[in-house]
Design goal:
With 43 residues, the protein is of the alpha+beta class. It has one helix and two strands; from the N terminus they run E-H-E. The mean pLDDT is 95. InterPro entries: MDM2_MDM4_MUL1, Znf_RING/FYVE/PHD.
Length: 43
């Protein structure tokens, strides 16, 4: 889990899995459209 989906805010995927989602890209948890993907850095 290395990215955040916006606008929903779910953290449920790594970036390669996000890229593998079919178009139009939708959040796997809530099925809302993904407007933006933000990298997540855990320290």
């Amino acid at each position: 889990r290395s990215c955040v989906f916006l606008d929903c805010g779910h953290i449920c995927s790594c970036y390669p899995c996000y890229q593998a989602l079919p178009s139009p890209k939708k959040c796997p948890m809530c099925r809302n459209d993904i407007a933006r993907v933000v990298p997540l850095y855990n320290s």
